[in-house]
Description:
The chain is mainly beta. It contains 1 helix and 20 strands.
Amino acid sequence: MTLIYRTWKKNLHLETCLLYVVFTVFTGSSAVTPVFVQKGKDVTLDVMTDGFHEDDIVLWRFNTSSVIVTFSPGKEPIVSEVYTGRVEFPQKKYSVTLKNLQESDSGVYTAQLIGSAETQTVAEHKLTVDSVSSSSDSCNLTVTCSTQDSDITSRVTCDTTTCHQEGGERSKVTTSGASLRLYLVNSTMNCNHSNQVSWTKDTKETGQVCPQFTGKNKRRSFCCFSTRCLTRTHDGKLISQELWNNSVNGIGD
C-alpha cells in the first residue's frame, strides 16, 4: 500500500496550492506506476535496486525508444543530448529527476536492467503532465475507470449545489468479457468492475476534491487534485480510478 502526498505553495496574486494523491493496493508482480505532475514542475523516478549486480547496466527510456540516461559500472551517468540540463541524480542509485516538465513529456518511462544473461524491465512509470485550467464558479473533473484491457472516461461538472455527469452513465464490456461501469450517484462517482469470479467497486466523493461543492474553502485559492486507486481482483485484473480537479475558488476574502 502506498499513499503519497505532494504539496507546495507559491505567493502570487492568489495563494497557490497543489495536492497530488496516489493510493495503490495490489499484490503480485510490479505494475505501471501512475505519476501526476503539474506543468513546469519536477519529478523523481525511482528504481528498486534489490538483486542488482556491480556489472549491470541500467537504461532509462521514454516511450520504449528514446534513451534518457545510461548508468554503466564505474562511470558517470551518460545523459542523452536532448535531455542535457533537464536531468539530475538524487542520492538513490539509478533514480533520475526530470526538470521543468512540459505536456510533451507525458508518456511511459521505463528503466531496463541489462545484465550478462538477459535484459529486464525493473521500473515503469506512466507520467501525466497537467496544464492548469480553472473556473471561478465550477469544478470540472475528468474521471477514468479502467482495467488492464479497457477503460471508460467521463467528465463531471460541480457547482456549489449539484454535480452533473456529461452523457450520464458510461458502460463497456472489455475484451476479456468483464463489465465496466462509471456513473454518478448524487455527489459520488462509482467505478464498477465485474466478471465471472469477482465484483469490485471504487467510489470517490466529489466534495472531497471540489471546494465549490463543499463550501468549506473560505479563502481565495487555486487547488489541483489528482487521485488514482488501483485494486487487483481475484483473477488478477487491475481496476483503477483517476479524478482530476482544476479550480479557482473565490469564496470569501
